[in-house]
Every structure is written in C-alpha cells, then in structure tokens.
Design brief:
It holds the Pfam family Pribosyltran. Belongs to the ComF/GntX family. One of its GO terms (molecular function) is glycosyltransferase activity. Keywords: Glycosyltransferase, Transferase. It is a single chain. By secondary structure, the chain is of the alpha/beta class. The protein contains ten helices and seven strands. Helix 9 (about 205-215) links the parallel strand 6 (about 195-200) and strand 7. The radius of gyration is 18 Å and the shape is globular. It binds zinc ion (2 copies). One zinc ion (ZN) binds near residues 52, 55 and 66.
Length: about 240
C-alpha cells in the first residue's frame, strides 16, 4: 500500500468513527464520504451526454454523439459523470486547492461508478507542471487516479508537461488549442495501446485534445477521455463573455 493509499484509508476509518457535518449543507452525516445523501443526490449528473466528448445532450437516448463529433469524433469514448455546475465546482475546488480528502473520496467514488476500465487499457494522468504541483503541495490528478477504484490498478503511461501554461478558463477554444500544442511529452511507448487520459474537469477539452493528438501521433490505437466533470458549453460561453 502506497503512502497516499494508507493516509486515505486512515481518513476513511476516522470518518466512520467520527462522522461530522456535510461541508455543503452542514447537516450531520453518517456517510463515509463525509457528505450527506441529499447533497450527493443533488449533484448535477451529466446524462445524457455525447459518447465521444461527454458534452451534455438534450436527447434522452444514450450512446449518441454531438453534432461536432458526428463530423469528427474527439475521442474513442469520453466519461465525465458530473456537470461542472451547482455544487460540483465547490467540491472540485476543495479537492484541488485545499486537498480536502472527503471531497476527493466522493469525486473518486462517483468517477469509479461511471467508468469501467477497458481490458488492457493504460492510464495517462494529465501531467502538472512541477511548479504548479509544488504550489499545491501535491499532484491532484495523480491523487484522483490513486483513490478511484476503477483507475488505481491500471498500468500508467508517463508523460511530462514541458512548460507551464496560464489558467485556460478565460481563453477561447482556438487560443487554448494553440497554447497546448507542444505542451507535453510522452516517455512511455504507446504504440498499439489503448490509452485513457484522466483530467479533473473537461472544459473545451483543449488539454485532453493536445494529449490525445500526441498519443495518436506516437501510434496509440485508441484514446479515451475521463474526467470528474464536464463544463456545459453554455456555462463556458457565459464565463468567456463575462471575462
Ligand atoms: Zn449535505
Ligand atoms: Zn461530442
């Protein structure tokens, strides 16, 4: 058991022993994830969504693609169980910037329920620049991969971020794609492999697209995307217009 897994198990044990209050509504909770059942139930689920890029769809049918992916599929498959609206940003923020274990457990658990790893697939966690990881004190995506029951046993592909990129949320899709081109290098041979790319939140998908392109250029057979949450296009446009 790794050090991170040991600390996670210890925290789970403590939460079972001393249940506290749900961070979202302050109600007493007995749930081992540290959040109450009502708040977990109220989290916005990303269903139905595009099979290829996880963009929310209005159709009730599963397994469909959005108009853009019908013309040109983004990924072999994409999984993002939550919408990045409602209480999801608060959860992701707690986990990403404050290393809150209850938020990490809950997000990892929800992701684990939605994602079933394909046979012989390899996991590539979106690499953080060492400067960012040092600022936060940990690599939150690597942590997520370790906590999620569906990804923790997958073999890993090693990749590096060549340069630090500024926060991408206020850039449009074209600016993001331009910035992310050449941002990564992959150390492991990916020839013929089925790769699952893991990120925290899929917004325009520029980061995952850049890594997917690199994997394909280096001979990967299939590239999937996996994230905790997907930003609906409408929310992203509002953010961009407001900036
Ligand atoms: Zn609650
Ligand atoms: Zn799509």
């Amino acid at each position: 058991m790794s050090f991170h897994s040991f600390i996670a198990e210890l925290q789970r044990w403590l939460m079972r022993l001393m249940p506290g209050h749900c961070p979202l509504c302050q109600c007493p909770t007995l749930h081992t994830s540290g959040y109450c059942a009502a708040c977990i139930h109220a989290l916005p689920r990303n269903r139905p969504c595009c099979y290829s890029c996880a963009l929310p769809l209005s159709s009730v049918e599963e397994g469909l693609c959005c108009a853009r992916c019908l013309r040109r599929p983004r990924f072999h498959h994409a999984t993002a169980p939550l919408l990045y609206t409602g209480d999801t940003p608060a959860l992701v923020h707690s986990f990403k910037f404050h290393a809150a274990l209850p938020a990490a457990f809950l997000l990892a658990e929800l992701m684990g329920k939605a994602f079933h790893p394909p046979q012989k697939a390899w996991l590539l966690t979106v690499p953080q620049h060492p400067h960012r990881a040092r600022q936060r004190g940990f690599d939150h995506i690597d942590w997520l991969a370790t906590l999620c029951p569906s990804t923790r046993r997958m073999p890993r592909i090693t990749a590096h971020r060549r340069y630090d990129t500024p926060p991408l949320r206020h850039l449009d899709r074209r600016q993001r794609l331009k910035l992310m081109k050449d941002a990564f290098s992959i150390e492991t041979d990916v020839t013929g492999k089925h790769i699952v790319l893991l990120d925290d939140v899929m917004t325009t998908g520029a980061t995952l697209n850049a890594l997917a392109t690199l994997c394909r250029q280096q001979g990967a057979r299939r590239v999937e995307a996996l994230a905790i949450a997907r930003t609906p296009l409408s929310a992203w446009r509002e953010l961009h217009t407001a900036s």
